## 1
Amino acid sequence: MDLEVVVITGMSGSGKSVALHALEDAGYYCVDNLPPELLTSFVELEHAHHGHRVAVAMDVRSATALPLVPQQLAGLREQGVQVRQLFLDATNDVLVRRFSETRRRHPLSQAEMREGPRPLLHTMRLERELLAPLREQAHVIDTSTLRSAQLLSYVKDLLSVPPSRLTLVFQSFAFKRGISMDADYVFDVRMLPNPHYEPLLRALTGKDAPVIDYLRQQPEVALMLAHIGDFLDHWLDALAHNHRSYVTVAIGCTGGQHRSVYLVEQLAARFEGRWNTLRRHRELDGI
């Protein structure tokens, strides 16, 4: 069956609608809030009408049926369907702020009214518990610090790579803005020499030649690059054999501008011939 299905799940307020818009722009036939019971029949119906790329969003409003989804997706894969799973997440404080700004009611709040109103954080903890099995199977995107345009770009980049082999996502970030929730591995490189303290380099980034030249001359930077690269060389085959579709490697420095950006670029160049490879620069992409 020549068909690709993208399933988007995630926390309420994390940006699922934005992600679905990205898929629609990319030519997918999209359905929001599809009841899980209808997933298999919907995919079969759409394929019968010559649709080859389908995207569905599901959320906790279908809580009682969500346990059906992993088995349904496994069945679709057995039929030769290419299935991609995306899970959008954000920190609790960010989600609370978004609900406050939009004045929207949490999808679970209506059900909880029967037992009396509960704090939003309690409702969100319940939502995380209900969605945990789907999160474990999916590629996670932390939208806590992302603008809508960044999320659109990230989703389109993910869809641009072939789904047949493991995809490596290298991401730079600033520790001062928090660790990415979507990272499988996090490396702290704040102990390395910092170009920020070089007046001529301060306004540049790890993509600029003067910064690249400076960092290449630092033995500690070369050693860190070798250690991270050797670690990934050793374990990526095992991850791929374990049916992992995506692995996100986050490199963090203080400001997310120089050292982490440089290391992400170097690591991506090292591995892109062997694996699908994507680069993300969380702080630079938002500029």
## 2
Amino acid sequence: MADLSREGHRQRLREQYLSGGMDNAPDHHLLELFLSIVIPRRDVKELSYDLINQFGSLEGVLNAEPQDLMNVKGVGESTAVAISSIKKLNDRVIHNRNKNITHIITIEDAKKYFINELCNETVEKIVQVNTKNNGKIINKHIVGSGTANCCDVDVERILQNAMRDKSAYVFLAHNHPDGEAYASANDIDFTFRLKRIMDSMTFKFVDHIIVAGEQAEPIIHAELFEKYFKEKKS
């Protein structure tokens, strides 16, 4: 016989969701609702708590690797795949926004493009985009990746990509997964070193943009570097 109390609780969660009442619900309630659909014949309230406690937050649960999820008691392969696929689906939706961005003409265009590209990344990545004279995107390259707060990049690789694509303009961007859209001293030094190199090339280095979540800030067009260089001289 079905557990009427459990079934009634699940039905109430679904009705609450359908009526829009989940918008302000605690994270564990929303996760519980999802788990009740993935695991239909079990009470999953405690499991939702266990997952959030294990990974620190709802975001931590959704960013976890399937193998790590399966280390939590009660999470099998199907459940782990279902949970981790939420982020993959969301990432795809966000990346697909760039299908409608064919040209980068302004810094605002660049910020929008790179936010779509990097906002959900959990490790640092450096992305290079090369464009024609009219701003039409020629190609995108991942030129560096690393840990959550460290990313190495090969300058020679950036230059080769630009030459191979017969670029007119070059944009770079990288993300701060757990930080702010604020350039570090190393970011600024690297940016202006690369700019000096490209000043002698046939293509122009336009900007290096820092992305953190839904925020993005350019370095060359920002006032930050002026403050930084004044501090270095003093």
## 3
Amino acid sequence: MERGVFITAKEVAELLGISKSKAYAIVRELNEELSAKGFITVAGRVSRKFFEEEFYGVAG
């Protein structure tokens, strides 16, 4: 499967072994940070690069 630009809440849930509702909360929080920085966001998805940097502390 090709890794896209965005990671979905479903992927976050599977990756972290958490419920979908918790994954949606994490995605929502990350999107709020991006929105505050002036970026356009998509509900239920977040930039894969931003997720990896913010959640794992790993640069692309």
## 4
Amino acid sequence: MRKIRQITCIAWECFRKWHKNPQIIMCFLLAFVFCFLLSDKVMQFAQEHDTYLQGLEAFIWTFGDPQSVLAISILLLLLFSGMPDLSNEVPYFMVRTDRKVWIGGQILYLVSATFFFVIFILVSTVLLSAGRAYTANLWSDTAAILGYSGIGEEIAVPSFVKVMELTDPVHCTVHIFLLVTGYAMTMAGLILFLNLCKNNGGMIGGVIYSGYGILLNPDIVAEWFGIPLEQIRFANILSGWISPLNHATYYMHSFGYDNLPKLWQSYLFFGVAGILLFAASFIKIKNYPFQFTGTANGG
């Protein structure tokens, strides 16, 4: 119980610095701006056609798209670039506890901050669409027009018929929230581990992780493996399995009639990847050479 309190105190100390950290403030401001820009297409369409949205649809149609997930997750590089926290309080924590407890506090902070960040995105999209939204758990006329007419594809809004036919807005939102959180959590774990291995290694690893998702676009996969256009479905399935970004994309999952990953398999993928990265951080911290600002030697 004592160690749990210590881990919580270390995580809280990281959160306590948010109010005076311009980097954190900028990260959340950019996230809100991204939410506005990415959801604006849906809102403009609803206004032009004098239709309304279900309150969660702006989030669903915005972050059901891999490019939107990627754009927001890149902000995690700004949010977590300084992890692990090596501020002036760390020597005090290291005297009162041990390395494992300290890294446990860092991990608790990463997990909590990631959830808070995704919740902030969800709330932002709901607030931005509140003027033309209702609360009933039913798909809107806006979603129906975007999906069944094909207009959604033309204006790059991922309103898919199979999503609307097989689920409802609330359940769809829960799955998208968990998938985006899983993707963000994996990136956060990667940033922490690589920063423990090498200064700024997390930034490099985060960029590579994001670039990997971009490169595994079905069209690029088809070109790499020489898959003809009439067989692009196989490239779509292949990229769905091997790309973390596609695992985080709701419509890139099997709904009973294709060979894409099932939702539980993507949750398992992100869960295992996150646990392995955090476990690697626990191992790495044993030999981590602490270097604090204002000190001449590492500790």
